[in-house]
Amino acid sequence: MRQSKLGRLIALCSATLGGSGLALAVGPDVIVGDLYGVDNFGAVGGIRAYAVATESCNIGTVDLLWESWNNRHPVIGQNMYRLKNGRFEHIGQSWLKHAFTALTLELCGGPCNGHGGSVLGVGCSDPYSASLNGQQSRLGPRSEVNATTGEYPYPYGIGWNQSGDAIYKRLQCYQTDLANSGALYFVEGQYVTEDDAASFNKDNNASYRRVTISSSTYNVTMQGTTQRMKPAIQAWYDNGGGVGIPDNNVKLAKMNDEDGGTFWLAYKVSDLGGGWYHYEYAVQNLNSHLSGGSFSVPVQEGTQVANMEFHAPFYHSGEPYDNTAWTVPTGIENGALTWTSPQTYAENPNSNALRWGTLYNFRFDANRAPENGMISLGLFRPATNSTLTRLASVPSVTCGPDLDGDGAVGLADLSIMLTYFGGPGGPAEGDLDGNGIVDLADLSSLLELYGGSCP
């Protein structure tokens, strides 16, 4: 289902109003109101399993469908993340809990309209304990869910009504990634369901909370409060300077594909001294079914680069997706460093792609200082607009803000700068000197306004 321009406008308005904590979203709107506990199910082969307790709220204006034995109920994903040495990484993910009945509590302030059972009523909340969210027979695969539309088959085809060992289907993490000295940890819950998505309210369905992990038992303890309607990637900024201390050097940006799926980009550049800088990028696919298949950063030819790396969580318990790591660049090619999925969609639809509900990392060092440039996220599934771009900090390019990476600054860069920075109006949009046309004189004016120069 592709969102119309009107639908995207409604989504933008809903997200803006919903972000205030007010029940102003049109239609049903499920959010994670609280993450209130984590169960530890033990370890198998160095992998430990958890489940996170979630309480949902309907902050919308219409009851949310919650029908047990069909595909008209939410599915619930659980994730764990680690912030360590300036790197925010996704270290574990679960299969999806299929919801089965809704209660009529009022966690998010209510008032609850009293509708429950096969719906989550307006103003109502519904808790699922960690033991319920870890109940293996009710956990279904992520691979069968389209998180952009909220659609999925029921009964699901993989692992239907099946249980297994202690870690099967549950939130799995390598024990070596847990209880690391100096690290901060976070859990995340995310609800996906069709009527919420159809009302363009899917972008506020994830919330995160900080936790601590025992170095002896690996038990998890909740800390602080649940950060409602914030995907976990925002924890990097919120806690990058320490617990509850924002890191203003971490920048966040949102990207949307043509179907209305959402990615979040976060990045940070650190001065290593001696003329070298570390570039750290994270991309969280919140709900894009099209998924990510490549990530590219423009870098001027002749720049020295080192320590190119990639990080991703692993799929498990029979999900069909390949866990082969993305191809890491060995050097600059065609004016960029580019990471790619092991295979294209045409070659293997189950190749390792940046699927919904996951976060991937891309990093390197370079001997050039940062400036504004356009990173590119290539989509994995076929799409008319197969590449998403976003302004971010990149190693300095050939000539001032060469945002399109063609080795020169021209009118195309002026268009990009206007898109992301805005600009004064005139007889024509971007006519900064008021002569009735947009030309290189306006580019010169824009460079003076926002910095950057060209020989």
Question: Average pLDDT value?
Answer: 89
Please give the largest β-sheet: 11 strands, antiparallel
Strand segment count: 22
The CA-CA distance between the termini, in Å, is: 48 Å
Kindly estimate the percentage of residues that lie in beta strands according to DSSP. 25-35%
Cα-atom radius of gyration: 23 Å
String of helices and strands: HEEEEEEEEHEEEHEEHEEEEEEEEEHH
Shape: globular
- Low-pLDDT stretches are 1-23, 421-428, 450-455
Helix content: 10-25%
Structural class: mainly beta
Number of helices: 6
Structure, described:
- The protein has helices spanning 5-18, 130-133, 194-198, 234-239, 411-421, 440-450; strands spanning 30-44, 47-58, 64-65, 75-84, 87-93, 96-98, 119-120, 125-128, 139-140, 171-174, 184-192, 206-213, 220-222, 251-256, 262-273, 276-285, 292-298, 305-311, 336-340, 358-366, 370-379, 387-395.
- It contains 6 helices and 22 strands.
- The N and C termini lie far apart (48 Å).
- Helix 5 (411-421) crosses helix 6.
- With 455 residues, the protein is mainly β.
- Strand 15 and strand 16 form a beta hairpin.
- Strands 1, 2, 4, 5, 6, 8, 9, 10, 11, 12 and 13 form an 11-stranded antiparallel beta sheet that branches.
- Helices cover 11% and strands 34% of the residues.
- Residues 1-23, 421-428 and 450-455 have low confidence and may be disordered.
